[in-house]
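Re: the request from the purification team.
They wanted to know what the chain is likely to look like in 3D before they choose a buffer screen. I agreed to run a prediction and write the result into the notebook, where they can find it.
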Amino acid sequence: MTAMIENLQSWAPFTGSLAAFLASHAIPARPPIRRRLVGIVGERAYLILYSVMSLLLLGWLFRSAGEAPYIELWPVQDWQRVVPQILVPLAFAMGTIGLFTANPLSLSLDRQDSRSASSSILGITRHPVLWALALWAAAHLAPNGDLAHVLLFGILLVLCLGGMVLMDRRSARQLGEARWMELTQPDRSSRFRGPAPCTGQHGAKPCSRCWGCLSPIPWPCCTG
């Protein structure tokens, strides 16, 4: 009994950091709370403070995952270490380009609607930064087969994929159907083409019943 209690206590730092990290994403994401916070400190200050808080909590989460009890789910093999070596540089390049590309529909340092460039990474996906983070998380799953790190990278991967759906819904609601369709229409003149919102039986709003809208490659259900 004592050993069981000690084992549970050894998971407390990881559980606490994970709960804090998830709460930091779930609570401010609620529209009334976010509007109130933005109204107090302003949009730019809110984004900076939120980013700093997220990085600090993420650092705590990584440290506690490394200190958590080691429970192996699959053995480490040499080929698994090659996966992040290949995918992480790709994710870094995608994230860097996406971060400095004007994009009013997703994470970017420039949220303005700029169409000066005829083509960009937004021709592949509306969410290059989130896809980069998802790719980074997925790449680290293979060589980290213990329970704590699988939970860590698995949850980060799910957050990134779910974040794309939530951002699409929020953008469609804030911009209105006409403007949303204009920015996401999959034609050559649109800078935000790529996985367009479903225009078939799901209507013009982002599809919540399939994974097609998450794919960087347009699926049939997402192109009409």
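For the purification team: The CA atoms of residues 105 and 171 lie 6 Å apart.
Please add any questions underneath this entry.
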